[in-house]
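TASK: fixed-backbone design
INPUT:
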């Protein structure tokens, strides 16, 4: 070595080696699918080493990973993941929804814990190949899709807290049905400051595996008290942040008599959700007159990213100006809230006859139409034609 910078191989989709499964499974009937319980025939794996860069990608039979017990992922939580979906459309195409957003967030998260970054367009191409190979697993019925889980872990076999010299990127896929198979069911939340999901300067805005398991026990405690999830509050002011594992939206009638859609600003507490950004963009374009979205207010509609405290939400409710509260995320797209427990009192939240408020219903319809190709939109990225 003479000190010059050496460029290590980046992820390269053209080098992928595809080995078809010798024992393909029979897909379950759509009605039998349970979220995250069934997986397709194949998976994508790519190894990385700090001296040699990204290795040849492989698409091969879905199966166990072989890892040394001392692998850093087991001891120091070198683990991050993404959640995205593929859809079988009426014209026979398979489409991904905003994969560029997932790739950007995955790279941002990888950099935060010193795992390798990669060419997002190349990983998207590899994911396209994987979902097309397993396209027979994607149900064509309305509301069904293929959930895609790209994951990156540190695999160096050595104890000690330091950057991992080895990593493995893998992608698995699971056919899933509608999140609310029997109709929309608004949820009841427990607003809590007993536990903290994220703190300023921390890792709450990154999609790390370590951010999720600490939320399980608080959720169990909320369930014992009759609530479905936690509404995470922050600081002595009780700022609203997120709901469970979803981004949060509140709709109010503001002081000017306008309908205002509010979500907390990202800063470093809030995960930059793909669905969150989609909701904001759709509503802002509608409010600006760039596109008309059925169901959204025809006038006096404001979209804001700003702080709101729980006491402020309670005051809007007392004045009859709280219109709806909902969460957003990949799995459900939107999830309505009909009650919030706060300091010993239940705060009722309006919901529509369908179980969703007007804003949540409108953005849900718009996003689903884009995802399934019913609306031509750059967010809907064609992977190719279904092979079976």
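OUTPUT:
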């Amino acid at each position: 070595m003479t000190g010059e910078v050496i460029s290590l191989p980046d992820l390269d989709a053209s080098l992928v080696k595809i080995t078809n499964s010798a024992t393909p499974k029979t897909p379950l009937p759509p009605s039998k699918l349970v979220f995250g319980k069934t997986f397709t025939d194949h998976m994508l794996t790519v190894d990385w080493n700090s001296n040699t860069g990204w290795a040849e990608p492989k698409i091969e039979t879905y199966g166990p990973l072989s890892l040394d017990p001392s692998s850093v992922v087991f001891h120091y939580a070198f683990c991050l993941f993404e959640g995205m979906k593929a859809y079988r459309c009426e014209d026979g195409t398979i489409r991904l929804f905003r994969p560029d957003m997932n790739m950007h967030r995955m790279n941002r998260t990888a950099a935060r814990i010193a795992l390798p970054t990669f060419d997002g367009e190349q990983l998207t191409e590899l994911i396209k190949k994987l979902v097309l190979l397993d396209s027979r697993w994607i149900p064509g019925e309305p509301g069904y899709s293929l959930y895609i889980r790209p994951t990156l872990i540190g695999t160096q076999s050595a104890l000690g807290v330091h950057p991992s010299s080895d990593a493995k990127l893998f992608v698995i896929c699971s056919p899933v049905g509608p999140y609310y198979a029997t109709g929309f069911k608004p949820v009841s939340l427990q607003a809590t400051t007993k536990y903290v999901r994220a703190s300023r300067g921390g890792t709450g805005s990154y999609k790390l595996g370590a951010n999720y398991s600490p939320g399980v026990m608080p959720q169990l405690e909320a369930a014992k008290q009759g609530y479905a999830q936690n509404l995470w509050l922050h600081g002595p002011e009780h700022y609203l942040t997120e709901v469970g594992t979803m981004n949060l939206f509140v709709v109010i009638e503001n002081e000017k008599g306008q309908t205002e859609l509010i979500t907390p600003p990202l800063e470093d507490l809030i995960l930059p959700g793909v669905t969150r950004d989609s909701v904001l963009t759709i509503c802002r374009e509608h409010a600006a007159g760039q596109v008309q979205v059925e169901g959204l207010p025809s006038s006096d509609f404001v979209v804001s990213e700003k702080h709101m405290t729980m006491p402020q939400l309670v005051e809007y409710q007392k004045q009859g100006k709280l219109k709806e509260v909902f969460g957003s995320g990949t799995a459900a797209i939107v999830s309505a809230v009909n009650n919030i427990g706060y300091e010993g009192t239940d705060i009722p939240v309006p919901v529509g006859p369908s179980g969703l408020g007007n804003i949540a219903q409108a953005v849900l319809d718009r996003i689903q139409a884009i995802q399934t190709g019913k609306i031509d939109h750059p967010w809907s990225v064609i992977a190719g034609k279904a092979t079976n």
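COMMENT: The chain has a mean pLDDT of 95.
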